[in-house]
Design a protein that fits this description.
Oligomer: single chain
Strand order of the largest sheet: 1-2-3
């Protein structure tokens, strides 16, 4: 899996896990993508740094260098929106 894809997947499920703290599956999935980021890509210290009206800013460290990746907020929040709109998950 490409680094960019792993970061985006981590971000989407991180947003779900934050909003649904009792959702063990979300936490486990978040941890799975974090493991991919750390083990496969050497990423550390990944976190959602800032959210503004249109973008979510993800900070992380790779090769001892701080990096910043921006994602469109609507795309990043789509998984959470889909889960919240499906009564099966509420």
């Amino acid at each position: 899996m490409r680094l960019e894809d792993a970061l985006f997947n981590w971000l989407q499920i991180q947003l779900v896990a934050e909003q649904r703290p009792d959702d063990r599956a979300a936490a486990d999935t978040r941890d799975f993508f974090l493991e991919i980021l750390t083990d496969d890509h050497g990423v550390t210290d990944v976190l959602v740094h800032k959210t503004d009206d249109t973008m979510i800013h993800v900070k992380y460290v790779k090769d001892d260098r701080a990096k910043l990746q921006l994602y469109p907020r609507e795309a990043a929040e789509q998984l959470l929106t889909d889960i919240n709109q499906n009564p099966k998950y509420n």
